[in-house]
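Blinded run. Sample ID left blank on purpose so nobody reads anything into the name before looking at the predicted structure. Input follows.
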Amino acid sequence: MGKFSPHMEPALCSGIILSDSVIREEGTGKMSLIGCFTVWNAQQFPLLVAPFYVTALLTNLRGNVEQIHVTVRLENPQNGHVLTSVSGNMRPGEHTFDPNEVFEIPFPIKSVAFPSAGMYAVIVLVDNEAIGKRAIAVRSLTAGTISDMEKT
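Blinded prediction complete.
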């Protein structure tokens, strides 16, 4: 790895992936994430986005656990307003967790309305405790902005 300037320290983001669709292969359990994205662009507000998925990657689970309650919340970090929230229970059955295992848990999110441009937060909670979050940008595009982007 090379040296980075004192103003830049790259880091891996939390294991929270946004996508248009998720397909889990029967038999192997492999997941295909279709149409992954990191930003929404809007001509006007409020912006109503189509349904999408938030896939949380959980690890460091230990021992024999009967049930884990997982929640994904989309909120405005400026005022704490929750735009949407979805929860589910992971029931591993007779499974004993190895802390190195990674579990992919996709959550379907229904349409969400973003009132304005800005940075929003996707937060993952396990048993009502926040364990990770990531930012998602909602950008306002004007006719000038689009043509400026096409020039670069």
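Unblinding after everyone has recorded impressions. Residues 62 and 97 are 5 Å apart (CA to CA).
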